[in-house]
Amino acid sequence: MSLELEKSKKELEDAIKNEDLDIKKIFDISAKIDEEILFQMKFNEYDKIVRNNDSRELINSIKQELSEHYYGMSEQELIIVSLNIFDYSYLKFQHISENDIVKYICTKNAIYYDILTDKDKKSLKVDLNLKYFKYLINKYTKIIENEQ
Question: Which domain holds residue 60?
Fold first, then answer.
């Protein structure tokens, strides 16, 4: 369970224990918990969607293109960015909303960032071109569509 969800549950318990119950606050906290649980369910669903048999080959292809376009990009950056591009392309192909895709990728990036060592974190500094990313996303979305 996420730290945010735990915090919200504690906040809800405290609000309920309070003698002068603030019903609006309780409903707001409950709604926030429901949203967090729903997002966790969506995150798990999207994670299953992107982990398909063809993903490794496409991710390696994206990684290769990135390494040719960005000289000196660290291995961690190549992995994270290629996964971001693949995830976006594949979830876009699956007709997942852009907001959900962005939230999924941001959450996944936060998880990766927490795993990196301090040395790896310091090496994350390549200036990236969003137009090139858009090009790669469109390219790999078409590749995925053609393979399906």
Answer: 53-147
